[in-house]
Batch of 2 targets.
Target 1
Amino acid sequence: MAFDVAQEGLTIVPVRTKAELERFVRLPNRLNAGDPNYVPPLMMERLEALSPKTNPFFEHAEVQLWLARRGDRDVGRISAQLDHLTPQPTPGRLDGHFGMIAAEDDAAVFALLFETAEDWLRARGKTHAVGPFNLSINEEVGLLVHGFDTPPMILMGHDPVYAGKRIEDQGYAKARDLFAYRADETGDIPEIAQRRVKRGLPSGVVLRQLDMKRYDEEVTTLTEILNDAWKDNWGFTPTTEAETRQLAKALKQVIDKRLVWFAEIDGEAAGVVVFLPNVNEAITDLNGKLLPFGWAKLLWRLKVKGVKSARIPLMGVRRKFSTTQRGRMLPFWMMKASRDSAIGLGYDRFEISWVLEDNSAMRHIAENVGGTHYKTYRVYEKAL
C-alpha cells in the first residue's frame, strides 16, 4: 500500500544531534506508557549503547538512525546498520540489518520508516534486510511476537502486539524464531544426568567460579569459548573482545561471581555459563532515570534487598570437547552449579534465552532443566 507522505503530514529526520538521539531513546517510553509489562530502559545505558564513543560495535559497523515525525511530534524510529563482521549466508546474497523499530500503530509511519531504512541499505549494495537487531545479533535481537503478558528480562525486548503485523505488511517474513524458556527453583536436570552428576566430576574436569581478581582475563576466556561454541549457529557474528569487555564493564556492578561458572578439562577452559541478576526487576519504577536517587535505589535492590529472577544469556562448550563424553555433560554440571548457587542466594525464577528454534541441542537442555517456552522473538527478512 502506497502512502503520500506529504498528505500524511510525515517527515523523516536523520539523527545527528545529542538532542535528537535523546528523543530517539525516549520515544518507546511514550508509545508503551499504557503497557504494564513494559520496562523503560535506563537512559544512560541506551545513550552509551548508541554512541560510537562508548560502543565498540561501531568500530566494525556503519549505523544510521532516523525519527519519523508528524508535525512537531515524534511518531516512530528505526535504525539501519551494516556489520562488516557478519558472514554472508549464501553466495550472491548481501544482508544488511534494521533495528530499534518503534512506532505508533499507523501503517503510514511503518511504511515511511522501512522505506527509508531499505533505501539506505540498497544504496550500499545490500540485497536483503534482516532484523530487528538492536544493534547487533550479539545484543538485543528479534521482535516479541508471543509472551506479551510478562515483563522482559535483562537485555531482552518488549514490543506492542501490533508491531509484528505492521512489519509483515511491509513485505517481511520470518527468518528465524528465538525462544525464551522460563524455569523456577523446582526444576532439575534429568534423572540420568543427576546420577552422573552425583558421582562427582570425572578425572580432569574442574568447575570454578568467576575470579573477579582476574576479571579482564576471564572476559577474554569467555569470549573465546563463546565464539568457538557458536560459530556454526544461524546468524553467527563473532563478538570482539572489545565488545565483550564493554558489556562486562557495564555489568560489573551487578554481576555476581557466584553465578558465573567456568568448566576446565585437563587444565583447558572448556565451557562457561552466566546467570545475570534481572536488573529489569529493579528498574521498573525508575522511568529510565538514575538521578538523583535512582542509582542508589538500583544498587540497594540488587545488593541488599536483592531481586528474585535471573537470566541465563550465555552458555557454551568449546567444539573440540562438545562431542566427547565429558564435554556433553558440561552443560549439566555448569547449570547445576550455577543454579544451586542462585537458589542459595534467593533467586526463584530463571529465564534461558535466547535459543534458536532449530537449535535442538540447546532446546533439549533448556527443557530438561525444567524450562517452559514462554516467549518468542522473531527475526524478519525481506529481499530488497
Note: The chain is about 35% helix and 30% strand.
Target 2
Amino acid sequence: MIEQQRYVAQDLEIFAAQVLAKAGMDDRLSDTVARVLVEGDLLGHSTHGLALLAPYAAELEQGGMTRAGAPKVLADKGAALLWDGERLPGPWLVCEAIDALIPRARQFGSASLVIRRSHHIACLASYLLKAVEQGMLIVLASSDPGGKSVAPFGGTEAVFTPNPIAAGIPASSPLLIDISASVTTNGMCSRLAKQGATFDEAWLIDAKGNPSHDPQILFDSPPGTILPVGGLSAGHKGYGLGLLVEALTGGLGGYGRADDAQGWGASVFINLYDTVGFAGKDEFVRQMDWLAAQCRQNRPRPGVPAVRLPGDRALALRRQQLDQGVLLQEAIEPAMRELAVRYQLQFPACKDNQE
C-alpha cells in the first residue's frame, strides 16, 4: 500500500487560489475562498474542503458563480442586515459578513446578517474560529433553495437540503458545533455512490419510502431521499430543525423555496453575540468551562474511550495537520492534479520533500 502524502497547508491555499483565479475569480476573492476550503480539510470535513475546488472552478467557468463584485445591501437596521449575495462565492461572502457584524455586535450586544442568493458556502465549521477568537458566540445556518434531497418526516418526496447549522462557542478550548438537520450530507452521499460504497445504517429511503443503506438511490429516477436527524423513528426532530433553518435563511431573507431559485447556491443566516455585552466574557467562559469539564470527565459507556466535546477532535486534527502536513482524502488529490494540468499550474510538493 502506497503511503499517502502530506502537504503544507499554506501551499494548498496558494494552489487553490491560483486555480480559482485561472477559472476567472477575482484575486481579492480567491485568496479568502482558498483559505476557507483548506480550513475545511484541516478540521477533518473532507467532503466540504478542497473536494469543492473542482466544482467551484467549473461553476466559475460555466457562469454559475459570480467572479467579482460586492453584495447589495437590501436592508440595514443596525443590528439586522440583509444582503443580496449576487451569486458571489459563498466563503468570501460569509467572511465579509462576519467582519461586518463584529463591530455591530460590540455595539448592540448581538447582530444578525442574512444573505440571499449566495453561492455555496463550503464547510460551516471553517468560519467559527474567526468569530470565537474575537470573543463572539456565532450561530451560522445555511440552506439551498435551488436543491432538495431531504423529505419531511413521514414523507417520500424531497423538499429540503440537509440544512446545516453551526455554532462557535468561546471557552478555554472553543466548542465548535457543525451539524445538519439530516443524518448525512449530499457530499457524503455523492462520494460513497461514486465509490460504490454504502452507509453502515439505513440513512436514506427510496422513492417508495423503504429504508436503504445505498446512497445511489439519491441519484436514481425517481430519487430517494436522505432521512432527517432522528431517522425513521424520531425524524421529527431533524424535520423541526430543518424548518427552523429555512425560517432563518429563506424566511428572513425573503428568498427561498417559494421562489424559482435556480443553480447551486445558498441562503445564509449569521448571528454574532458579543459575550462582553451580556454577563461578560469571563463569566461566559467560566460557565462553559464548567460544563466542558463535566462532559469530558463523564464516565464513558462501554466501547467509548472518553467523552469529547464538539470541536475537540477537529481542533486536535487541525493542530496536527498544521504541524505535520495536511492529509488529503484519497479522492481529492487526483482531482486537484487534473486541475493543475488543465490550468498549467505546479502542484504543491509533499511536505516530506521540503524537509
Note: The first strand starts at residue 6 and ends at 7.
